[in-house]
Every structure is written in structure tokens, then in C-alpha cells.
Amino acid sequence: MLSLTPSQVRLGWSATNKAEAIRLVGQVMVESGFISPGYVDSMLKREQVSGTFLGHGIAIPHGLPEARHLVLQTGVVVVQFPAGVVWSEDGHAHLVVGIAAQSDEHLQVLANLTGVLDDEAQAVALASTLDAAVIIQALQGSSALPEQQDAPAFEGLSLQVLSPSPYGLHARPATTVVEVVRRFRADVTVHHEGRQANARSLLSLLRLGARGGSTLTLTAAGDDAAAALLALQEAFVVGLGEEPLAARALAPESVPAAVLDYEGTLVAGLSASPGIAAGPVWTFQRERLEVEEWAADAAREHQLLESALAGAAAELRQLYEGFLQKAGAQRAAIFKAHLELLDDPEMLRESHGLIDTGLSAGASWSRVFESRAQALAAMDEPVLASRAADLRDVGRRVLRPLARVLEGEPTFPDHPVVLLAEDLAPSDTAKLDPAMVLGLCTAGGGTTSHTAIIARSLDLPAVVALGPSVLDLRNGQHCILDGDAGVLVVKPSQRDRAKAAHQRERIRLRRKEEHLERHRPAITLDGRRVEVAANISDAEEASKAVDAGGEGVGLMRTEFLFLDRDEPPGEEEQLDAYLTMVRALNGQPLILRTLDIGGDKHVPYLSLPAEANPFLGVRGIRLCFEREDLFRTQLRAILRASMEGPIRIMYPMVAMPEELAKAQAITESVRREVGADPVETGIMVEVPSAVMMAEQLARNVSFFSIGTNDLTQYLLAMDRQHPVLASHADGLHPAVLRMVDLTVKAAMKAGIWVGACGGIAGDPSGAVVLSGLGVTELSVAIPSIPAVKALLRGISMADAEDVAQAALECGNAAEVRGLVRGLLARKGAKA
Ligand code: PEP
Ligand code: MG
């Protein structure tokens, strides 16, 4: 039990600033025998790393972990500042709770304060009370003061699991827990060190503060409790979808962290993404949202909140799907976690409750998400603290339609800069143009924040947790951002600049070389050519593909022309789009894949019936047969465009020869209608049955393009979006490679060529193995084109074939990747 005596509570004090308040609180802690005086310095430093303001006028200063030896005894003191002390831009602290804790006990104190934090009226009363007993009663007597206790007597089933390592139950794994539980009716509770969380609520799970490797007890009650616990056990066993640390390792090309003896002023932070950037600072600012405090019509406010939530959910689904297509499941996962945050029953209940007290929808929602974000930010667990940015991001997304936007949309730089921000939300980072951002640095944040993850995937150096003083830097001031050493160098000397430039040069030169050579064909050392084409999803991307060295378009996902609108594009609109592409490609081939709607790509205006297993339902070519009107319109536009340039038609999701025959018959009838010449047709090979029937299918098409994304999911029976399974569904699994091998052999027999357009075609290991198996066209994301071409030019096909044959005999994808790394290391190339 938290123990507070009257001598540990001081009333009616004042301080001119935060540092003075912390020193005063520290003095009381020293007098109480809880700390040595040196701990006060650490409390001040802690505020530089992460603020301890919780909201509702309460702050909880405490020292950094490395100063724990200066804690003499675990204890808490409370100092009241009735006039308030400016603590952060978020507010004034009136009640400052100084915490001395040798281990994780402060998390317990934090949980104890939850009752006060959730009750604004009580917090206001405590800020001005003249009676210390009222404060003691509020902190000790509150029902929100759980002691370390055994799990309560429980009637249902229970199970013990370990919180995922190394980062604990943070947003992504907690989202997986919520997703698993939502498949069942059972009430599931997660118990951790005396605290309990509703397993359907992401925030409730995050507030457990469960560190990696700590024990969690799951209890479940209800008719399907046993099944729910079993499913959860399996999800925990595979790490709740978290990548193992090894897989998270930085790119092999990263320079090992070096301590650079800079002469300029160093601001130390944490390295979040390697590399070195030098250039002018540019401060990112988001718009300011202002809400009405009160509203007369509660029923209307309830409705407004619901529609703002629905709008935000739709935006997030769109972001999720876009990222899933373009950047893969790992990067898309954050938007799924955001969707879960929106669906949090506790936040919704509280917001609606506040509306009933007369507050507007905007004021209610912002109070609820802000107070939670502040509580998260104050947590000592960096992974959880960095999730405050996620919660604020999603909170503001809902708030925007309920508020007045005072400073317009955030502006992004139009010249290359080192971007500086207090913290960046994932959706801000997603909007950045990598060409205009040399590096990222943030005052707050953590190394596992999504800013860091995205910075790594965009190959941008990044340093986080630099402290608020960096925000004082002037725009345009020159600096060096050293992502390896985790420092920002302000006012760098000439020597500093030269040293940083030398390091940066090595990587830049390699990229530049690749870029300069991007229009050279990918011909291996022994003279074999592999075409490298682009995957695109809109008309404008065709010219970008050419600029990047793409040898045509190997996959245009035409369904993207049908998303995010209220009705399908008509024949003329489609014709315009296809002609724009044909013209941009200037004689290079354009493979238009006909509509692949269904599965994960929803088109609400088509009012398609809901399916239990959409990936196994009416998807791709099957939908085109159901909606022949759409198919024919699309074919008319494609065939008319084919009169201006080399277009090939590719049918998606073909599982059997009769589907191909039917698609071709419809195409032929449309071709006669529009009077076009015959065009080459091919199929996506992405369903295992198509591989097994490849010999027959090959007789009737001009080409195959292997869709390894779907082929992997259907072959390994792992949903490509599944948060737990997606990381295991690696297209380099030998089972998938054997399918590729069968497909290529069938194609060779029929004399047709085989391409690949799934994600592994642009992965260095995938590019080598697929080429070695006889795939002669790799269609990849635009930014990958120069690197894939350079990689293939640096190896011989004989080597690639040897590795590919050995890969077929491997037991898993990791072994295959190891083989390719070995080959590339021998050749001095980069994987
Ligand atoms: C694939 O399945 O590999 C593919 C390229 O198609 P999509 O990702 O659009 O399903
Ligand atoms: Mg596919």
C-alpha cells in the first residue's frame, strides 16, 4: 500500500518554474529520507528526456533509471502549488507527486493516481484544499489504489503467459490480443502486477505497462472461454506478431555506430535510424484545432462524435490498405492499431458520458484522448511512452471534423532539410516526401516509435528524444544529424562537416551509381538479361517508373482506379488513364491487370455481399464474371487504348483453365466490338491450382506473372494481412519457390515467358532466387528499380541458378536468405 503521512504532504507552496518546483519537491524527499540529494539532478534530467505531466494538474517527477542507487527508500511526497507551475505546454501542475522508487514501483503509483486523473472535479479540489488529509484520503483511500494482490477469486478459466519480448505489451502486440479476443464472446481480463485490463480495450491493455518477459494472467468467462484462452495462448507463443529482434536488425549496409569527436554543440538523443544528414533545420508544425467547450443539444453531439469516429475509421482503413499494398503488412500494422484505438469501448463510453454532462463532442473527445495520451507519455517504459504520439494522432484525426482548424494543414518543406519536430505522428511521417527530408529528429519519441520504423524503411537517418531545447533552433540553421551516434550537432565546425560528409558520401555514392546506371539493362556477368519493370497503381506513376529506369510496367493494379470514390470510373475516364500510361511509357510494354476487387480491397459502392472468407470468395476474375458489365467496360477502355501502344492484358486470380477461357472469350467479343487488333493476354499465377495446371494454362497465354503475395498466402494457408502470421508468410519459403520452379518449367515447355510481380521480386534475395529459377521479368516498386538492376548486374546467372537450386532444398525461408547473403558476400555485393 502506498504510504503517505502528513509530513509528506506540503500545502500552499509556490514556484516560479518547473525546475524550482522539482528542487522543492526533491528537498522534501531528501528530508523524508527517501533519496540522496544527487537524485534531484536526475529528476531534472528526466524532464528533458520525457515530461512527467499526467494531466488534470498532476505531475509525477522522478529520476532516471541509472540514478536508482540514490534512492534510499521507496516513498512518495506530495507538494501542492495552488497557483500552478507551468509544466509543459499542455498545462500547469498544481499537485506535484515526487516519487522515489528502486524498481518499477512508480508504475504502481501511476496506476493509483488513475482514479484522481479520471475525476477532474476531484483534481481541482486537491489543487486548492487546505487540508492534507483530503489529499492523503484521495491517494490512499481511492478505490483506484490497488495493492499488489493475488488475482481475485475467479469462477472462469485462467492461463499464464509471458508478455512479448523485448518491448512488452505495446500497441502492436496489444492490438493482436484485442483482435484475437474479438473473435470470441468470452469476457477476457489480463492481470498484471495487481492491475487488470479488459482484453477488448487497447488502451486498457497499454495501461498495464507490462514489460517484455513479465508474467500475465489471462482469465476468461463465458461459453467459449476455453477456446478464447487457447487462441490467446497460441498468439502469445508466436510473439503476438512481433518480429524477433534479429529480424529487426538494421540494414546490413548501415555503418557501425562510431563515436565522432565533433567540435560543434552536441545535443544527445537516441539513434533511431542510421546514416548521416547535414543541412538546414526545418521545424514541422501541425495545425491547431480549437473546439467549443459546451453544446446545448447532447443528442446532436452524440451523433457528431459517432460520425467523426466513422470518418476517421474510414480514413484509417484506406491508409491501411494503401500501405499494405505499397509497403507491406509490417508498416501497415500501425494503422490497424489506430483503428483498434478508435474502437476502444472505454474511451467511447467516457466521451459519450462527458457529452451527457453538457460538453461538446469535440471537448469530450479531446479530454478523453489527451488525458490518456498524457498518462502514456509519462510512463517510464519508453515503448509505451512513445505510443502517446499514436494516441494523439488518432485522437486528432477524430477531432478535426469537430473542431476549427486554426493554422490549416501542416506544411511540408519544398527543399531538402533536416526535419525537426516535437514528435511526429505516423500519418505525418507517411506524408513526407523523402526527397525533401535529409533526416528526421524529434524532441520526444523513442527508438521503437513508428517514426523510427518508418524512417528506417525510408532509409532516412533519425535521432529521437533530443529534449525540448532543440525546438528552439532557428529554421535554416545548419546542423549535422548523426543517426549512428544518436546526436544532433548544432553549429558544426568545418572539420565536423568534412568528417560527416565523408561518411555520408560512401552510401550516397553507391546510390548515385545505381541511379546513374538505372537505364542500363540488368545483364548478369555471364550475359543473361532480366527485365526490371514497375508495379504502379495510378496513371501518374507511369512516368515516374520510366524515370527510375523501369523497363515498362509489369503490373498496373487497375482496381486502384476504382477505390476511394462513389461510383466506378466510366469507359472514357479509364481510357484517359490508360492512354496517359501508354504515352508516358513511350513504346515500353504496359501490363494492365484487370480488376482485382474483393479480398482486402473493398469497393463500397458495388454493394457486394459480405463473405466469411473474402480471400477465398468472389475476388478477382470471379468478380469480373459476376459483374460482367464492369469487366466489359474496362476491357473496352483497355482495348481502345491498345491502339496507341503495346498493352498486355493480365487476368488476376485465375484458378482453373475454364476461367481463362471465359475471360478470353469475353475479351475477344469486346475486341470485335471496338475493332482493336488482338492483344497479348496472360495470367497472374497466384493460386496454387494455377501452378498445378500451369502446363494447360500456358498453352493459351503469352505470359505468366507470378503473384508471390497471394501465392504465399494460399500455399502456406496464412492470411497475408494476419497480424500474427504475416511475418511468417515469407515468399522465399522453399514451398513457394518450388511452385515458382514448377511454373517456370511449365512455361518453358510451352515457350512462354514468366515474370514475377509480388513483393519478393523487389527484395534483393528474392530477385536473385527468382532469376535463378528462370523468371525473366521482375516487376517491383518504383524506388527499388535501380538497386535491383545494379544487383543483378553484379552477379552471374550461373551463381544465381546454383543458389536457386540449393534454395529449393532448404527447410525454411531464413535458410534461403542465408544462402543468398553468402553469395552476395562472396561477390562483394549488398543484400
Ligand atoms: C500478388 O498477389 O503477388 C500480387 C502482385 O498482386 P496483389 O498484391 O495486388 O494481390
Ligand atoms: Mg494478388
From TrEMBL:
Residues 156-243 form the HPr domain. Its EC number is 2.7.3.9. It is an enzyme of class 2 (transferase). This is Multiphosphoryl transfer protein. It is found in: Cytoplasm. The gene is fruB. GO terms for cellular component: cytoplasm. Its main location: cytoplasm. GO terms for biological process: phosphoenolpyruvate-dependent sugar phosphotransferase system. Belongs to the PEP-utilizing enzyme family. Keywords: Cytoplasm, Kinase, Magnesium, Metal-binding, Phosphoprotein, Phosphotransferase system, Pyruvate, Sugar transport, Transferase, Transport. Its cofactor is Mg(2+). The phosphoenolpyruvate-dependent sugar phosphotransferase system (sugar PTS), a major carbohydrate active transport system, catalyzes the phosphorylation of incoming sugar substrates concomitantly with their translocation across the cell membrane. The enzyme II FruAB PTS system is involved in fructose transport. Pfam families: PEP-utilisers_N, PEP-utilizers, PEP-utilizers_C, PTS-HPr, PTS_EIIA_2. Residues 2-142 form the PTS EIIA type-2 domain.
